[in-house]
Design a protein that fits this description.
The complex is a heterodimer.
Chain A lengths: L14 E6 L11 E7 L2 E8 L7 H6 L7 H4 L7 H16 L5 H30 L2 H22 L8 E2 L2 E2 L7 H24 L2 H7 L7 H6 L4 H5 L7 H4 L20 H25 L18 E9 L2 E9 L7 E5 L1 H13 L4 H11 L3 H5 L1
Antiparallel strand pairs in A: 1-2, 2-3, 4-5, 6-7, 7-8
Chain B lengths: L2 H14 L3 E7 L2 E6 L4 H10 L7 E9 L3 E9 L6 E9 L4 E3 L9 H11 L2 E3 L7 H4 L33
Parallel strand pairs in B: 2-5, 6-7
Antiparallel strand pairs in B: 1-2, 3-4, 4-5
Classes of the chains: A alpha+beta, B alpha/beta.
Chain lengths: 374, 167
């Protein structure tokens, strides 16, 4: 930013309002940004969301608890298994269901595979946002291999619908562990190559370093979570602070950066992919034999009350709150997704920055509109 | 619960009087219910008092029991790692609740959503009083509040073009 930058809020004759989206490649979905500009500088920005609103919460509340799992695939469609886990946990808590130990490991393995796939989308599309198209192609090549693995197990590349209340839908197919390990071997080498391709690229660094700084206080006051929070130096990862499933029994590091800028959020995600690979290997190694699914009641009617789950999705805190009145259908299913919260920070983050930096900041938040609009 | 927390809750009881309807610790989660007009004061106390320090806006949402609306604020303390569920019950007619966006800026969009889906007025919200700016998930000219139990969908638009632009 230079001395040329006009005072925020001052109206000049060169003011101009433009719409970014709802069909714009940098918005990663149907998001519209109404931006007031003074030359190259953003004076104000108002995100307009809801283009993908399907009323999923209401649809989930209109049917028996266990039928809501496939709807969660359509929340964060880049990481459907993590959403499956959130709803399954909430249902297990409200109904007092136990999850067999093997299923806990299978869940963690699947969630971490999905985390890598999701972060690869971030890696590729973020590079593309900033103008580095090549990285996009590399990331999607690797992601495709991972999605093939997910398809081999769950039958679907994206909408997996595989983690269910009480466990997972079936055990791994034969030879699956070896296939996953083989993928990870190759993937970690590729990831190092991506790192040298993009992370050290001087143009990439100029575009991300010192851009869109979020202070730790601001991140907390806004309820930021996941890599956005940890990129600002706040060491909170729900897999650690409120551990669930097999996470208490796995060892991994929580990547942390203190800069709070776009580069910090990017670096946290890249490092998280390495940690996810570590967790997957541990799961495959330590997974006990046994059932993949606990005993299920035929009719599921939890007692009147409330329960919620808090899980660490690739984007941050995904929590689901259920309210029961003792009947077969819930009264309320509430989905609190990280993307919704992160997008609400955007107007404050982009005030006074250049238009191009706004795109870099939006990309670094890694929002998924399916989860914002629900 | 720690001694400063007990002291902070005693102070809250004194400050709110009858406004504090219930307050209990349930498995590490602090569950509170306050009168609607005591909400803002209670929220501020929960954020700032020693031993409570609920600095993280976890979630804010509502539901309709059929008789009244329940609004729940799920708060979390990043320093003390504890959760609070702050609850307000509102009569259906003229349901309104004070905004807490000034306490936790992250509640801004959640409050807009509560208005959008339930029609609960958020008094003091930056966009309050302008339904076209409060609507968030639904188009700005939407009629009614679809998450209410008594909502009847009415489609009166052009099926090819749908509702007008969103807010």
């Amino acid at each position: 930013m230079t001395a040329m930058q006009p005072a925020v809020g001052a109206s000049t004759s060169s003011d101009m309002t433009i719409n970014l989206g709802p069909q714009h490649p940098s918005t990663h979905g149907v998001l519209r940004l109404m931006v007031a500009l003074d030359g190259e500088y953003v004076k104000s920005c108002r995100p307009v969301v809801g283009y993908l609103h399907r009323g999923l919460e209401r649809m989930m509340a209109a049917r028996p608890y266990r039928q809501s799992v496939p709807f969660t695939d359509r929340l964060d469609y880049c990481a459907s298994l993590n959403s499956n886990l959130a709803i399954s946990q909430a249902i297990e808590r409200i109904g007092g269901m136990a999850v067999p130990e093997r299923a806990q490991y299978l869940r963690v393995m699947l969630c971490e595979m999905n985390r890598i796939a999701s972060h690869l989308i971030f890696f590729g599309t973020y590079a593309a946002d900033i103008g580095a198209t090549t990285a996009f192609l590399y990331a999607f090549r690797e992601r495709e291999r991972l999605l093939d693995l997910l398809e081999a197990y769950t039958g679907a590349r994206l909408t997996c619908n595989w983690i269910r209340p009480g466990g997972v839908a079936s055990d791994m197919p034969e030879g699956y562990a070896q296939a996953v390990c083989a993928f990870l071997d190759g993937f970690l080498k590729e990831l190092d190559a991506y790192d040298t391709l993009l992370t050290g690229n001087p143009i990439f660094r100029v575009r991300t370093e010192g851009v869109g700084i979020i202070s730790p206080e601001k991140a907390i006051a806004y309820g930021a979570s996941g890599p956005v929070l940890r990129g600002s130096g706040v060491n909170i990862d729900l897999r650690r602070t409120e551990p669930y499933d097999a996470y208490p029994r796995t060892q991994f590091d929580v990547p942390l950066r203190t800069e709070g800028d776009c580069l910090a959020r990017y670096l946290v995600r890249v490092e998280e992919m390495r940690q996810s690979a570590r967790i997957i290997r541990q799961c495959l190694r330590e997974m006990p034999e046994g059932e993949h699914w606990g005993k299920q009641p035929k009719v599921f009617r939890p007692a009147a009350g409330e329960a919620y789950s808090r899980t660490e999705s690739p984007r941050g805190e995904l929590s689901i709150y259920l309210v029961s009145d003792g009947t077969a259908n819930p009264v309320r299913v509430r989905v609190r997704g990280p993307s919704f919260v992160h997008l609400s920070m955007l107007p404050e983050l982009v005030r006074g920055v250049k238009v191009a930096d706004m795109i870099a900041i939006l990309g670094s938040l890694d929002t998924v509109l399916g989860e914002v609009d629900r | 619960m720690s001694a400063p927390a007990e002291a902070a809750l005693d102070a809250l009881r004194k400050a709110l009087g009858d406004g504090l309807r219930s307050c209990a610790l349930d498995g590490g989660t602090l569950r509170l219910q306050v009168a609607p007009d005591a909400l803002h004061q209670a929220a501020l106390h929960l954020r700032d008092a020693d031993g409570l320090r609920f600095d993280y806006p976890g979630d804010l949402f509502a539901w309709d029991t059929g008789e009244r609306f329940v609004v729940v604020y799920r708060l979390w303390s990043t320093t003390l790692s504890q959760t609070a569920l702050l609850r307000v019950e509102l009569e259906r007619d003229g349901a309104a609740v004070a905004s807490v966006t000034d306490i936790w800026p992250g509640m801004n969009w959640h409050e807009r959503e509560v208005y959008d889906l339930y029609g609960i007025e958020i008094v003091g919200h930056p966009d309050a009083g302008d339904p076209t700016r409060m609507r968030i998930l639904l188009p700005k000219d939407w009629e009614g509040f679809p998450f209410r139990k008594d909502y009847v969908p009415v489609f009166s638009g052009d099926p090819l073009h749908g509702p007008q632009e969103t807010n």
